[in-house]
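EI: anyone free to look at a 158-residue chain?
SC: sure, send it
EI:
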Amino acid sequence: MKFFQTFDVAASGMRAEQTRMDLISENIANANTVKTADGMPYRRKYAVCEAQNKDAFDSEFATASFDGTDKAGASGFSGGGVNARAMVSKEDFKWVYDPTNPNAEKEGKHAGYVAMPNVNIITEMTSMMQATRAYEANSTIIESAKAMASKAMEIGRG
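SC: here you go
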């Protein structure tokens, strides 16, 4: 792995966790939203991470930086970090019995019940702690890589 790819991979992890935190915040903010713009209750969103395709970038970077040859000796690179994208949960809404509510179902199997968002605050808080720790872990990787680069430069000078 090329040295600076460490920064790229860790930064992509930080971006993914930031996306995850944004979605968690949106879920918590809308935990009681019974009507959105489409007239339905809010649906929980979550992040899905997938491998980032950096082959084209690496090829261009190597050509521009090393005159088309891999002088850094980093052949066989196969990773490049992650991308996070938002997905909408398909879980059923929470149904709360409140026949006096104007949003209550008038008939059918849910008559007298109000459809509430499928957001569980405990799940969201747990996910928030996981995302925070993963973000901090990626930050630690960047700090460690910076310290190693600094020490390598000191050795090169000495």
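EI: Confidence is low (pLDDT under 50) at residues 72-77.
SC: 👍
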